[in-house]
Amino acid sequence: MTIWDNEMKWLLCGLFGILIFASVVGYLLSLKKQNATIANLNARIRAWWAMCIIAIVAILIGQIGSLVLFALMSFYALRECITLTPTQRGDHEALFWCFFIILPLQYVLIGIEWYGVFVIMLPVYASLFLPARIALAGDTRNFLERAAKIQWSMMIAVYCVSHIPALLMLDIPGYENQNAKLLLFLMIVVQISDVLQYVFGKLWGKHPIVPKVSPNKTREGFIGGILSASLVGMGLYWITPFSWWQALLISLLITLLGFLGGLCMSAIKRDQGVKDFGAMLEGHGGMMDRIDSLCFAAPVFFHVVRFYYT
């Protein structure tokens, strides 16, 4: 069985069917009434079209295509993180290592399926190397703060994101050549949770969860988005090696982690006094604004699947 079996075809038909329906609804709403919420919704729908098409192209190319796609996503996300927290001249050589040696090496390790090194290279070896390289530059001003910012950026933008294509390296009995469905399952459930939290929050949100961090995240949006996205995940159990109740629990786990990831990224933006990490994607801000939820969900999802299903 290949990844382009009937299950994959039905999944893609459903995904693009939803996008077509959303596009029609967004267009009709824009004809009826023009406001910032509708404009933002249509911008999000257009960005979703672009991201879905890119994801399908990567799957068509195969594992190498997915690795290149997510490596580029890590590169742009890392650039946004570093730009948001300005560095000093003494950090430049360490940053060269981050962008052009450590980042590609992380994805090469996934490509050759060297799990033992891939899983510890950044949190152990890179985390020791980078502050040492900064110290060798001889600039001690705000040393701990600078090293921590670079290490945090690498962990979030590179290490966590790299666990998404790493799903393709898992050897799950009875699920051979179908791991791309797991990748899509993760992205669909986490991202639709973000969308549904936004929708529920706009429709019924009245009580902010953490108003000083993200006043737009409400209890109503959180509960409605998390529960409905978990049900969507349960409904997609047929494309995974999970049973329906396992898919429900795993979906609940990754949507909760996605919420926490978005909240942490909002805290960083609030601290820096900016609305978005960048302006790369219309309606979504920068790359990190789009994948903030996946950063927390991806590594946990990867290790849950690896521990229980391989």
From TrEMBL:
Q: Which domain of life is it from?
A: Bacteria
The processes (GO biological process) annotated in the record are:
peptidoglycan-based cell wall biogenesis
**Any idea which UniProt keywords this protein has?**
Membrane, Nucleotidyltransferase, Transferase, Transmembrane, Transmembrane helix
State any single GO MF term: nucleotidyltransferase activity
Pfam families per UniProt: CTP_transf_1
Q: Does the keyword NADP apply?
A: no
Do the record's keywords include Cell division? no
Q: Which residues cross the membrane?
A: 10-28, 48-73, 94-112, 118-138, 150-170, 182-200, 221-239, 245-268
GO cellular component term of the entry, any: plasma membrane
Q: Which PANTHER family match?
A: PHOSPHATIDATE CYTIDYLYLTRANSFERASE
> Mind telling me what this protein is named?
Phosphatidate cytidylyltransferase
Query: Lineage in the entry?
Result: Bacteria, Pseudomonadati, Pseudomonadota, Gammaproteobacteria, Enterobacterales
